[in-house]
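Below is a filled-in request sheet from our internal design queue. Each sheet records the structural input a requester submitted and the sequence that came back. We keep these sheets so that new team members can see what a complete request looks like end to end.

REQUESTER: design group, bay 2
PRIORITY: normal
MODE: inverse folding
CHAIN LENGTH: 333
BACKBONE (tokenized):
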């Protein structure tokens, strides 16, 4: 059984309600039909019911069992307007502006539903930038208690791979923090360890990646990773973490014996922390496209309730997978 099939089974055991606000996107409509068919989650779609059903007819899919909510006719619109106003009034929000936003911005409407406990999570990003998905989530749901920053990760499932956790890895940060400081990298490692443990179930073994292994190169970029590892050991002493490590030293046992023979992480890593967003984004796309890996994300970690992003290059199958993961996150939140 594949990793994502295991996640789908977990989602079915305690079915959660997930909002899919991008109802003009055909991949989202197809995903919704398959999610309902597989019993992975309850689905709320936001928009004009007639237009959504016309789209389903054109795609020859069945949306029976999907709840469609039109903001213009929603019975709880006034409650949502007041909730948005109360949440954001210190930032200049007015009731009139809150109503205008909720009638026109389906992503914000979906986040307000999550805030009001009328849904357990939201998945968007198939046709929106990460910033558009993240902004209302941070403004309305805010960060979870004790979390220093929100970050993004991908769960990567590489076929026919014995490395990592039988081919399953967590890559971070691949979608949000452009150039994290050493302290931020340490916090990302801690959040990623908890995400890996909760979503994969295995012990997270964390490699802080660099173009250098244990002093093989000298540069301020290497220094940042070394410092991040030191901070992580100090602030999160329970983590199995080491750095700085080159990718091959982090993953391949034979290389690890040569480059980092004293490391308990080298050659065993399943959580890869990239030094910046360039590395993380390029890295996950290389593995996805060249190794034919399944890439689920960018998942967001550190928000008070589950809201997850999608790559605009995603398939409908990717959306199904991220919804299943979001449902499992909601079970654990």
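RETURNED SEQUENCE:
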């Amino acid at each position: 059984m594949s990793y994502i099939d295991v996640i789908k089974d977990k989602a079915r055991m305690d079915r959660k309600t997930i909002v899919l606000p991008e109802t003009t996107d055909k991949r989202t409509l197809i995903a919704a039909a398959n999610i309902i068919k597989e019993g992975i989650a309850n689905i709320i779609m936001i928009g004009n019911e007639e237009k959504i059903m016309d789209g389903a007819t054109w795609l020859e899919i069945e949306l029976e069992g999907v709840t469609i909510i039109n903001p213009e006719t929603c019975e709880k619109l006034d409650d949502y307007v007041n909730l948005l106003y109360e949440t954001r009034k210190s930032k200049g929000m007015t009731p009139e502006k809150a109503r205008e936003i909720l009638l026109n911005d389906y992503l914000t409407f979906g986040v307000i539903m999550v805030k009001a406990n009328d849904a357990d999570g939201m998945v968007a990003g198939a046709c929106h930038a990460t910033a558009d998905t993240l902004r209302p989530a941070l403004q309305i749901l805010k960060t979870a208690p004790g979390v220093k920053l929100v970050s993004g990760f991908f769960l990567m499932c590489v076929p026919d791979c014995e490395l990592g956790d039988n081919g399953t890895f967590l890559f971070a940060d691949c979608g949000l923090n452009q150039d994290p400081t050493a302290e931020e990298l340490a916090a990302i490692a801690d959040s990623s360890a908890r995400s890996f443990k909760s979503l994969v179930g295995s012990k997270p073994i964390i490699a802080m990646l660099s173009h250098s292994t244990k002093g093989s190169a000298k540069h301020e970029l290497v220094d940042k990773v070394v410092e991040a590892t030191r901070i992580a050991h100090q602030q999160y002493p329970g983590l199995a973490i080491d750095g700085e490590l080159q990718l091959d030293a982090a993953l391949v046992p034979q290389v690890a014996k040569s480059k980092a023979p004293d490391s308990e992480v080298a050659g065993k890593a399943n959580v890869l922390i990239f030094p910046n967003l360039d590395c993380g984004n390029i890295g996950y796309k290389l593995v996805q496209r060249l190794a034919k890996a399944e890439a689920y994300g960018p998942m967001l970690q550190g928000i008070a309730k589950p809201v997850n992003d999608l790559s605009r290059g995603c398939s409908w199958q990717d959306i199904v997978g991220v919804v299943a993961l979001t449902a499992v996150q909601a079970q654990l939140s």
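SHEET NOTES:
- The chain has a mean pLDDT of 92.
- The CA atoms of residues 23 and 52 lie 7 Å apart.
FILED BY: M.R.
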